[in-house]
């Protein structure tokens, strides 16, 4: 196995880890089939395949929505033609770490809404949790089935210069993107049938079944096949494509608020053939909007009495209301301690070093080093409100400093990482582009982690912002068997 | 199936059929006009008439050339009669019901819409237009074919079929009516056969050969009108469409009033002596049929699909 393939003329950045080639520009073992393909067929062939791929995505109707784009509610999903490869050995280690993390987070959430041992033991500061708007008091005293609150978690992983995976954030509310992971694979199989024949690429398509199994394991009526519903805000939501896709793939109902009602603490679906009792709701709606009786009394959205039905044990809600308490960038900083506290294990995947602005010393450091750090609000998603210090203007940094001083609890800072790169087809030429990885982890009766995940790519040269709403693209993620 | 999305499936069926029928009609009339004598009273705006009252304003505004009429029926984004508009609608409805249809159907509907949005402006020359319409019909048949081969025979499938056949029956009456209004009075040819322009009607309905076989079998007693209205074996006849709707409706919940309206229309047709109708009588019969079809639509929407609260 001394086959060496330089992916010339591709030039990786000298100070970044590249997913496909090593620092000499030679293909890593798991990337050899692709490297061979590219060197035999050339970039022109890649361009042709990219066109074929774009056309396939168009006709499959794989789309996403950008709210600012009022003309066009469906935009074609951007997928780069070059896959990202990871060896199965490395992936096994990583997925064990992700499962460990979700298990600990669920123990943590359950503890917070019950005995609060971790607060009493002062591992996590009590005021951090009790003053958080994500701590939903009405959920206290609940222990959902299997002690699991966050049943579906999307964890963002990044690699730094050293090539190690780090957890960047845990998305425990309504993480999205898994349908794109699945569709990316469907498209790639159509466009590169020969590569799938040549190497052992692990399949990803059991996710919908695993998701269904996880949801079904939460059903209060274990003696019958449960009625499972995906709850969507509707056709104008940015993730509507995914909601309908998952409902279709699991063969379950896709409901909006108005399709559900609560009677005698049970939830019913209005079907053409009359009411049908619902056992499990996979909600893709923020928890504070699910029940106007409880969380947002001014809200016109939601299903009146849903939380009562949930607390009575007549319906399961995934993710459980209140799970968001652990989806907070300040809580994130405590996750390594949380893992050790509940599992007595060392974390298998590290956090990115994080400075808490609520801590006087750390805040001082952050304010003095704004030009080196990335500052993030604790409660935003989608890449909004982030300051990338080294690339910001003086004015932007000054504004950020004011915001941090005014509300320190609301901010964290991290060193600017040299995110790893992968060769990406840009105007017909392969160039390095930064990327991250979002695997999806499930917890019901069992723990499950996707094979790989959704790789998101920042398509602008040098950019670190991978969100599709902000010009990001995606790559298919291939976990390649290297264990023989 | 959810009560909320039931109507989307029904409309999907209607719009898909409308696309198919409109494309057929456009090609059939173009054929006829190429063949017909210069002094024919037939003119392009007739086509707009076929597609309903709402579109008459367009005619009064003076758009009567082949080019403007065709634009209005094929590519105009703001014309509710255009194929392009119907394609947008069929996709929008499919998008709301993706969870009840297999993904192959979604892909076919989606690519039909993409094809139409991209190609509809290419219909300037007659030759290109002909090919475009043939392709549209083919793609509609593709959707139907995938549906036939993969979709569960459940309420969604039934509603889709009711939508298709209601639209089809409506289109058959419209096409007949306008040609009559244009005083293309069925001329009695040899052996009582109504000829010439009726061929255009049959053409638009894909029924030329079927009619020949029917005629041979029926020994010349019956004419095109009878064939189009009551011949059970012809899939675009009114009776065929009513029977199909009835069969599907029998399996739906709360279908009593729907079934009654279908039955009532069926009886009306049975009681009419169709062979010797004057142009005027035929016109008023068609008016009655169209009113009956609207009643069926109303019964479906307000009785069968109306959500019972609790």
From TrEMBL, chain A:
By its UniProt entry, which Gene3D superfamilies does this protein fall under? 3.30.1490.270, 3.40.50.11290
> The Circularly permuted ATP-grasp type domain covers which part of the protein?
83-458
Matching SUPFAM superfamilies, A to Z?
Answer: Glutathione synthetase ATP-binding domain-like
PANTHER family for this protein:
BLR5612 PROTEIN, SLL1039 PROTEIN
Q: Which domain of life is it from?
A: Bacteria
Q: What is this protein called?
A: Circularly permuted ATP-grasp type 2 domain-containing protein
Name the species this protein comes from. Pokkaliibacter plantistimulans
User: Which InterPro entries does this one have?
Assistant: ATP-dep_Glu-Cys_Ligase-2, CP_ATPgrasp_2, UCP005522
Automatic annotation (TrEMBL), chain B:
Pfam families xrefs: Alpha-E
Its domain of life reads: Bacteria
Record-annotated DUF403 domain positions: 1-300
This protein's name: DUF403 domain-containing protein
């Amino acid at each position: 196995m001394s086959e060496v393939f330089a992916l010339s003329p591709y030039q990786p950045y000298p100070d970044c880890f590249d997913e496909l080639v090593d620092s000499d520009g030679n293909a890593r073992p798991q990337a050899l089939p692709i490297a061979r393909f590219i060197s035999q067929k050339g970039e022109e062939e890649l361009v042709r395949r990219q066109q074929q791929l774009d056309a396939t995505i168009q006709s499959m109707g794989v789309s996403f929505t950008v709210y600012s784009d009022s003309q066009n509610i469906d935009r074609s999903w951007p997928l780069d033609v070059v896959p990202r490869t990871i060896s199965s050995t490395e992936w096994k280690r990583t997925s064990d770490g992700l499962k460990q993390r979700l298990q600990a987070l669920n123990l943590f959430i359950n503890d917070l809404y019950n005995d609060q041992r971790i607060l009493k033991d002062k591992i996590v500061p009590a005021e951090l949790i009790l003053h958080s708007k994500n701590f939903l008091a009405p959920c206290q005293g609940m222990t959902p089935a299997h002690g699991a609150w966050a049943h579906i978690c999307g964890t963002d992983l990044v690699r730094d210069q050293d090539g190690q995976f780090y957890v960047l954030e845990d998305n425990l509310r309504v993480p999205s993107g898994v349908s794109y992971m699945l569709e990316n694979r469907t498209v790639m199989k159509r466009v590169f049938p020969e590569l799938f024949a040549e190497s052992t690429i692990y399949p990803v398509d059991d996710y919908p079944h695993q998701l269904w199994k996880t949801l079904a394991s939460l059903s209060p009526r274990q003696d019958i096949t449960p009625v499972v519903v995906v709850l969507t805000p509707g056709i104008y939501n940015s993730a509507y494509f995914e909601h309908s896709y998952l409902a279709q793939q699991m063969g379950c109902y896709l409901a909006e608020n108005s399709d559900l009602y609560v009677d005698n603490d049970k939830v019913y679906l209005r079907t053409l053939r009359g009411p049908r009792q619902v056992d499990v709701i996979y909600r893709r709606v923020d928890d504070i909007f699910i029940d106007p009786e409880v969380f947002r009394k001014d809200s016109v959205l939601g299903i009146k009495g849903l939380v009562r039905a949930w607390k009575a044990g007549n319906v399961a809600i995934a993710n459980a209301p209140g799970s968001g308490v652990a989806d907070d960038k300040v809580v994130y900083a405590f996750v390594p301690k949380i893992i050790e506290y509940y599992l007595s294990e060392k974390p298998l995947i590290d956090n990115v070093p994080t400075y808490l602005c609520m801590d006087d010393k750390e805040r001082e450091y952050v304010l003095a080093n704004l030009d080196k750090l990335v500052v993030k609000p604790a409660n935003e998603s989608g890449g909004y409100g982030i300051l990338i210090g080294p690339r910001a203007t003086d004015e932007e940094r000054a504004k950020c400093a004011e915001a941090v001083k005014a509300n320190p609890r609301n901010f964290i800072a991290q060193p600017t990482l040299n995110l790893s790169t992968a060769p990406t087809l840009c105007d017909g030429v392969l160039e390095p582009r930064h990327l991250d990885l979002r695997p999806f982890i499930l917890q019901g009766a069992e723990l499950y982690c996707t094979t790989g995940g959704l790789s998101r790519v920042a398509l602008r040269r040098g950019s670190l912002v991978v969100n599709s709403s902000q010009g990001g693209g995606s790559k298919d993620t291939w976990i390649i068997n290297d264990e023989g | 199936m959810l009560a909320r999305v039931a109507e989307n499936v029904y409309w999907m069926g209607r719009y898909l059929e409308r696309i198919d029928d409109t494309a057929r009609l456009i090609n059939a009339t173009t054929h006829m006009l190429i063949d017909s004598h210069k002094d024919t009273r037939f003119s392009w705006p007739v086509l707009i008439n076929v597609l309903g009252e709402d579109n008459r304003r367009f005619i009064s505004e003076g758009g009567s050339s082949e080019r403007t009429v065709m634009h209005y029926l094929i590519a105009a984004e703001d014309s509710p009669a255009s194929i392009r508009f119907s394609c947008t609608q069929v996709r929008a409805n499919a998008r709301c019901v993706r969870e009840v249809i297999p993904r192959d159907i979604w892909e076919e509907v989606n690519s039909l819409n993409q094809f139409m949005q991209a190609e509809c402006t290419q219909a300037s020359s007659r030759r290109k237009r002909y090919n475009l319409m043939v392709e549209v019909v083919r793609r509609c048949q593709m959707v139907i074919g995938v549906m036939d081969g993969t979709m569960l025979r459940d309420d969604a499938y039934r509603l889709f079929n009711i939508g298709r056949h209601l639209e089809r029956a409506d289109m058959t009456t419209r096409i007949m009516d306008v040609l009559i209004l244009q005083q293309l009075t069925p001329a009695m040819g040899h052996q009582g056969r109504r000829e010439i322009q009726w061929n255009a009607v049959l053409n638009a309905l894909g029924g030329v050969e079927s009619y020949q076989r029917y005629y041979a079998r029926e020994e010349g007693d019956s004419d095109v009108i009878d064939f189009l209205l009551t011949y059970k074996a012809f899939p675009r006849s009114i009776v065929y469409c009513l029977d199909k709707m009835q069969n599907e409706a029998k399996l739906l919940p709360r279908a009593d009033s729907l079934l009654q309206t279908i039955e009532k229309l069926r009886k009306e047709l049975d009681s009419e002596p169709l062979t010797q109708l004057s142009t005027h009588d035929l016109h008023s019969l068609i008016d009655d049929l169209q009113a009956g079809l609207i009643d069926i639509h109303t019964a479906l929407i307000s009785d069968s699909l109306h959500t019972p609260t609790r």
